[in-house]
Amino acid sequence: MSDQAMQYKAQGNELFAQEDYKGAEACYTKAILKNPRNDIFYTNRAFARQKLKQWEDCLNDCLMAIQINKDSMKAYFFLAEAQIELGHPNEALSSGLMAYDLCLRQKSPSAAKIAELILRVKKEKWAVKEKERMRRRGYLVVELEERLQQARESERQAIIGKLQRCEIDNVVAKEELEILDDLSRRKIDELKSVFALADPANLKPREVPDYLIDNITFNIMHDPVVTKNGRSYDRPTLLEHLRQSETDPLTREPLHDSDLRPNLALKQACDEFLEANGWAVDW
Question: CA-CA distance, 152 to 175, in Å (whole number)?
Fold first, then answer.
């Protein structure tokens, strides 16, 4: 039974590589029916369902995988992505941080990708608070933004519907969704700009303090660490650098991951800045 389950998994992997996510989902389901106690089958199906934008089903698969294996980094990562898509940024942050912790403990090369997701979640949390602040300030801009978001969601569902009915393939669907999301984002940004111009109190320059910026990627840091020479970098970025060369990025002296120390004060400063300035994620 286990051998047959692994065969279904292998077939699913082949179909996934060919971007046949529906076919891959079906194969992973067959594998689960043969062996419902393998967490990898659930995370593989969750990934396929993520590609199909089936977020509720993706979330349920992740929860099943975690029930079987509480140390499944992929399950927590996919769970966070599903939660953010379903509009639950607080839960997504908890899942993302768990994935990041497991990633460091398991020395996975996925730290940068998970850190990127965590920053995105923090931006979403800020957006929720910012929307409430704007709601208190004035209902018109919020109402217009919600209408734009409803229009975007309606068009997204139409594209996903065409994909599920096989009227378009995955490549076309992905392109159409990316174009739609970009256009919607620009419309919302333009709307906010118009209202900001009408409110001089909001015309403050948006700048990120230099000490919060990673010196390799020049992005705001998520998990700052200190090297032996006292310079701080974002941990995921520095770990990626050390995989290529075990040297200090500045001095070129030997440097290993065991030499890194958390910069707790700087991390708190980054977290507090992001909580008040979610836009900085895209700075």
Answer: 15
Taking CA atoms, 242 is separated from 215, 219, 225, 250, 268, in Å, by 15, 18, 13, 12, 25
Structure tokens at 53: 């934008």
Phi, then psi, of 262 in degrees rounded to 5: -60, 140
* Reported pTM: 0.68
Q: Which helix (H) or strand (E) covers residue 63, if one does?
A: helix 55-68
For the beta sheet containing 224-226, the strands, ordered from the edge strand earlier in sequence to the opposite edge, are 232-234, 224-226, 261-262
Place of tokens 């393939």: 169
Q: Which own/partner pairs from 108-114 qualify as long-range (CB within 8 Å, at least 24 positions apart)? A: 108/73, 109/239, 109/240, 109/243, 110/73, 110/77, 111/235, 111/236, 111/239, 111/240, 112/236, 112/237, 112/239, 112/240, 113/77, 114/77, 114/236
Average pLDDT, the chain: 89
Section 152-164 average pLDDT: 92
Provide the residue type at 111 as one letter.
A
Structure tokens at 134: 């704007």
